[in-house]
Amino acid sequence: MSNSVHEQIESLRATIRRHDALYYVHATPEITDLEYDKLMRQLQELEAAHPEFDSDESPTRKVGGAPIAGFVTVEHRVPMLSIDNVYNETELAEFGQRVAKLLGGKPCEWLVEYKVDGVALSLIYENGKLVRAVTRGDGRRGDDVTHNARTMGGVPLQLQDLSTSDSQSKKGSRSSLFDEANSAIPSVLEVRGEAYISNSDFAQLQLASVERGEEPLKNSRNATAGGIKLLDPTQCAERRIRFFAHSVGSLEGATFTTHGEYLKRIEQLGIPSVPRTAVLPSFEAAVEYCQTLMQDLHTLDFEVDGLVLKVNDLALRQELGSTSKAPRWVVAFKWEKYEAETRVADITVQVGKTGTLTPVANLEPVEIAGTTVSRASLHNKDEIARLGIQVGDWVIVEKAGKIIPHVVRVEAHRRDGTERPFQFPTECPECKTPVEQDEGGVYIRCPNPTCPAQLREALRYFASRAAMDIEGLGTKLIEQLTENQLLNSFADIYRLESRRAELLKLERLGEKSVDNLLAGVQASRQRPLWRLLTALNLRHVGTRTAQLLADRFGSMDAIMQATEVQLAEVEEIGDVIAKSVHAFFASDFGRQIVADLKQLGLNMGSEADAEAAAARQSSGLLSGKTLVVTGTLARFKRDEIHAMIQKHGGRPAGSVSKNTDFLIAGTDSGSKLEKAQSLGVQVLSEDEFLTMVGEG
Known about the structure:
Layout: H1 2-24, H2 33-49, E1 73-75, E2 84-86, H3 89-103, E3 110-116, E4 119-126, E5 129-135, E6 141-143, H4 146-149, H5 166-171, E7 188-196, H6 199-211, H7 220-228, H8 233-237, E8 242-252, H9 259-268, E9 278-280, H10 283-295, E10 304-311, H11 314-320, E11 330-334, E12 337-351, E13 357-368, E14 371-377, H12 381-387, E15 390-391, E16 394-400, E17 406-410, E18 420-421, E19 436-437, E20 444-445, H13 452-463, H14 475-483, H15 490-493, H16 500-504, H17 511-524, H18 529-535, H19 543-553, H20 556-561, H21 564-568, H22 575-586, H23 588-599, H24 607-619, E21 626-630, H25 638-647, E22 651-653, E23 662-665, H26 671-679, E24 682-684, H27 686-692
Parallel strand pairs: 2-11, 21-22, 21-23, 23-24
Antiparallel strand pairs: 1-6, 3-9, 3-10, 4-5, 4-7, 7-8, 10-11, 12-13, 12-16, 13-14, 15-18, 16-17, 19-20
Helix pairs in contact: 1-2, 3-26, 13-14, 18-19, 19-24
C-alpha cells in the first residue's frame, strides 16, 4: 500500500511539473486552471496524509515557507558581467563590423532575443534540484533570494526531462539538437535570466493595491525588484513574478556547442527562455530579424527595453573573449522608452485592403516623446481580449524608439464604472456584409470584394510606389475620386483620361494637377507584369513573389491557367501562396479585373517574356550569379537595380554570404561592404556594374 501511495504522489508531482512546463515554457496549456487546481489539491491531500513522503522539491512547496531573518551575500561561481549597449542602427552595424574583423571572416551565426525589462537572477541546480537563487548584485556577489525564487512561475524546484513527452512533440520547432551525452540532467546547471511581472498580472496587482487602500505600484520592474527582496516568500508569491532564461553560468555534466542548443535543452527541463528567440545565419539577417521583433512589440505581455544579439557558437565566443567590462560577442540594442497615461475615448474599426477589420483605440491626445498621440492600433479581437481594454479605460501607451505607439496595459484600478466593453462587429462597418474569421487565424475580415473601404485601400496600394507607381494619385485624391464615383475599380483609373472635364470640376484640381495625374496614369500602362501582379493585391503576394511568378510564367494568361501544383513548384512559392493565387484567378471577380485591365491596354506580359526570362536565367550575363546591393545609388531605386539584375539573369539577395558573387556598393555602405571584403566577394561600383552588363 505504502509503495503504491508513494508512486501516486510521484506521478502527480511529475504530471503537475509537466503542466507547469506546458504553461510557462510552451504557452500551450492542455488543462484549465480549475483542473490544474484540482490536481494540486489532490497532491496536497496525499502529502498531508503521508508526511513520510515529504519533499522540498514538490510543486506544493512553490508557495510557502517561513520568512527569513535577512539576506546572505553569495559570490557568483562565474561573474555576471554587464554587456555593451548601442542605441542606433549605425552603432549596431559598427559592432557587427568589429566582430567580423576579429573573427577574420569566419562564418558566424547570431542569436537574437528580446531584452526583458526585469531583474537579473541566477538559478543554480545541482543534480536537478534548485539549491540557490542569487541576484546580480555588483556582478561578482549578489543576495541569496532562494526563498522567493521558489515561488516564481517558470522556476521548477526539481528539473524533469520533458523531451520525450507529448508537450515536446507539440512544440514542433523545439526538437532536440544536442547529442546523447546531454540526455542526462547536468550535475550542475546555473541558469541566468530575468525575473519579471507580466503586464496583465501587474494590472491586477494595481487593482488589488487600490482595493486595499494602498498606493499603486510604480511600474512592473520596480514591483519585481521589490518582490524579490521581501523577507516573506508568501508576500513575494502574491506578486506573481515569473522567470525567463537567457544565459548560462556554471555548467557541469553537459557540453554544448551553441547557445541555441543550451536554450533548447533547458526548455526540455522545464525552464522557459525568452519568447521569439531565434538563431540567424548572419549578422545582417539578425539585424533584419530585429526589425520584425520591434514591429511585434504589441504582442508581448511583458516589458522590454531593447534586443540582445549574441554570437551563437560557444567556441567563437571563447575566441572573441571579453574586455575588462563586457564580453565582445554580445551587444544590447536598446531604445529609449517613453510612456504616458491617457484615456480611451472610443474604439473604432478600420477595414484594410484585404478586408481585415482592425480595431483602433481613439485616445485623448497625449504628448509622448515630442509628438501628440491620439490613436493606437489594437490589431485584432484577440489583442482586445488580452488587454481587457474597454471604452473609457485609462491606459499606458508606450512609444519605444521609432516604433509606432502601442497600448501596454489597462490601468484597471482607475475604473469608475462608466467604462463600456467593446463589441467586435459581426458585420462590416462600411458595407454591412457579415464578417468571417480566418480559418485557424486571429483576423476577422469582410469577405465582400466590392466593399467601398477595401476599394479605397486597394486603390491606394495599386497606385503606390511599390506597385504601379502612379505619380499624382495619392490617398487624399483617391478618397475624393471614390466619393464622386469617378473611381469604383482598378480599371476606372485608366478611364480617367475620358473624364478630364469632370476632374477639373473637383476642388483643388487645376489644369496642371489633372495633366500630371493623367500623364502618371498613362505612364503606368506599360509597367512590367510583376508590378501589375503586386498591385492586384492578392493575399500573400508581395513584390518578390510577383517577380518570381512573372519570371516563371511570363504572361498573365499563363499564370491564370496554371494549376495550384504548377504554382507551388515555383521556387520560394509554397502551398499557401499557390492556393491564394489560384483562388483569385479562378474567381469571377479576379477574372473580370484582369479582363478589364487587358482591354484598357495594360502590359499583361507574353509567352515571349517567359521565354526571355528563362533564357536570361540560363544564358544571361549574370546567369547563376547572386548579387547584393548596399548603400545609396545615384541612378537607381532599390527595386530598379534588382530588376536590372534579373534582366540579365542574376538573382538579387538581401544579405552577404559565402554564396554571394558580387556586391554593388553605393555611398554610405555599411556592414555589408565590410563583410563582403572579409569574404573576398568582388565589390562593384554602380558604373562598374553597368559596364559589366553592357549598359554603361
